[in-house]
Amino acid sequence: MSSEIVLNVEVRERTGTGGARQARREGWVPGVLYGGPRGSVPISIKETVLRKAINTGKFLSHLVTLEHKGERQPVIPRDVQFHPVTDIPMHVDLYRVEEGSIISIEVPVRFENHEKAPGLKRGGVLNIVRHAVELDCPAGAIPEAVIIDLAGREIGDSIHISAVVLPEGVRPTIKDRDFTIATVQGARVMVEDETPAAEAEDAEAEAAGEGEDEGKSED
Fold first, then answer.
1. What residues contact residue 10 under an 8 Å CB cut-off, 6+ apart?
2. Is residue 137 part of a domain?
3. Which domain holds residue 61?
4. Which positions ≥6 away from 133 have C-beta within 8 Å?
5. pLDDT at 39
6. DSSP for residue 120
7. pTM score, whole prediction
8. CATH code for the domain in which residue 36 is found
C-alpha cells in the first residue's frame, strides 16, 4: 500500500527538555526517528502539519513518508503524546521501515452487512471484543481495516480471527490461539415482576370485602 501522508521534517540540533520546549514554542512538535543503521535521530514536525495528518484517522495505522532536504524515508508512527488539556500533540515516535521488512501494527476492525445478520434482525446485539487487531504485515501491504462480514450471523455466534480473510502475507501477531473478535448476543429483556403488586391488590380487595361483611352483620 502506498503512503498517503508525507511529512516534511527538520533535524533538531538541540535535544533534551530545553530543546523540546523551544521547538514547541516555535510551533514544532519534537520527535525521535528510530531504527535502521542510522540509529536514533531527533526530529521536529510542524504542529499544524502533524495535526492534519493525525486528523485523517490513518496516522497510526499506515506507512508515512518523511521528507528531509529531498530525501524520503518510509516510517511507521508508533506513538503520539498529547497535552492532557489542549490535546495538542507534544511528542511523536517514528520507526524507519526498510524495504521488504515485516512490521507489527494495529489495524482497525470494520463490520459490514449488519442488515444481513438474522441474529441482529431478531434483536440481537453485536458485542465487539476487539476494535483493532495487531497484524504482522509486509511494509507495503498494510490493510486499511480487518473486514468482518456479518451476513448470516445468528444469535450465539462467535467470530474468531480464523474466520477473517486477510491479504496475502498478512498474519495475526497472536499465533497461539484463535482469539475472538466479536459475538452476537441475545438482547436482555428486563421483565418487571408484577407479583408483589398483584398480591397487594388482592389484599386490599380482601380487606374491603371483610369490611363490607362486618357492616352487614351489624345491621
1. 28, 43, 44, 45, 68
2. yes
3. 5-98
4. 106, 107, 109, 146, 161, 172, 181
5. 82
6. H
7. 0.64
8. 2.40.240.10
